[in-house]
Structures are given as C-alpha cells and as structure tokens.
Specification:
Layout: H1 3-13, E1 20-23, E2 28-31, H2 34-37, E3 49-50, H3 56-60, H4 68-81, H5 83-90, H6 100-110, E4 116-122, E5 133-140, E6 157-162
Antiparallel strand pairs: 1-2, 2-3, 4-5, 5-6
Helix pairs in contact: 1-4, 4-5
C-alpha cells in the first residue's frame, strides 16, 4: 500500500486548525499554520510543502497534531526522501535499511566503487546498433560521501550490452565485461 497516498488523503480530510491544502492542476501543497511551521528547523522551512514528498516535513515536526499512523508514515517518508536533512535535524545517522534513498544513492554506490553504472541507454532501434543489443552510456562509480539523487557522470563510457542482460540503473559492471562502443557515434 502506498502510505503517502493514505497520508495525503487523511490530511486533506482533517487538517489541523490553521493548516490548509492548496490544490493545483498538477500538484497540491500543504500549508501549515505559522505557529506549526515555526517548529520546522529553519534549514527545512518553506511557506508551503509539495504533496509528493515535502509535505511530510511539517508533519514530522508537529507530532502531536497527527494520528500515530500519519506520523509513522511521515517519519519514514522523510527518512526515505530527505535522508541527509533527517540526519541533520535529528543529529543521527541512518543505517543501511532505514532509508531507501540512502540505500540506493549511498550504500549501493559505495558497495560498487570502480564499476560502471548506466546513466542512459538506447535500444536496437537506434541507427547502427546491432539487433538485440543496448547502447549504454555508463559512468564510473566514485566514492559517495552523502546520498544524492543522480547517476555517476564521471568518466562516462559507452558499452554494448545484450538486451536480455541490461537491467537499467540498478546494474553495476566491470568495464571488461562488455565491449566498449567506440564505433557508434555518441547520441
């Protein structure tokens, strides 16, 4: 179950006094009361919080205003989407398994330093690409000091990978595993 959807639905029905929800055609925004927003650490504070992820921030810092279910969901969502900010706000370090974002963009990358990780790819529809192959632009994984969204952009190389072996951004490989694609023009 998508806990974010539960929280947004629950919050939009029963907002605390002074809080409001601003809806737009593309997104909604949670606007806490000025008093509640003052509880949010200054480095995280905004006038309004976008509904996809950021709206969890004022909820976490106003725990007495929400149900246990909403608070637990918001704490986990903040750990997942804002791990560095969560660590700073609570003077803690999230360990492996406590934040999906930190797991993906910190632990997983550091476990694969020196390997290549795909940034983007083109299928065999691309001009000059052999049938059944994927042209992959991959970056060399460098040590990561904090979790940040983004792929490895340093020392990019192009590789030809069989379509049935290609697994998108979740794969890591040694540069000797697949042939480099010198003969194919850079897209």
């Amino acid at each position: 179950m998508n806990t974010t959807a539960v929280v947004v639905t629950d919050l939009s029905k029963t907002l605390p006094k002074g809080w409001r929800f601003r809806d737009t055609p593309g997104h909604g925004y949670l606007i806490p009361s000025a008093e509640a927003n003052a509880n949010v650490p200054e480095f995280l504070r905004h006038h309004e919080y976008e509904e996809d992820c950021a709206f969890h921030i004022p909820v976490v810092f106003n725990p007495l205003l929400f149900s246990h279910e909403i608070l637990v969901s918001s704490i986990q969502s903040m750990k997942d989407w804002f791990p560095t900010e969560y660590e700073q706000a609570f003077n803690t370090t999230l360990e492996r398994g406590e934040s999906s974002m930190k797991d993906d963009y910190f632990y997983r990358l550091n476990d694969n330093v020196g390997k290549y990780n795909p940034n983007c790819a083109w299928g065999d529809w691309y001009e000059g690409l052999p049938e059944g192959m994927v042209l992959v632009c991959a970056g060399l994984v460098q040590p990561v000091t904090k979790p940040e969204i983004g792929r490895c952009k340093d020392k990019e190389k192009y590789f030809l990978i069989p379509k049935d072996e290609y697994n998108g951004g979740s794969m890591f490989f040694d540069e000797t595993r697949y042939p480099q694609a010198y003969f194919i023009k850079k897209p």
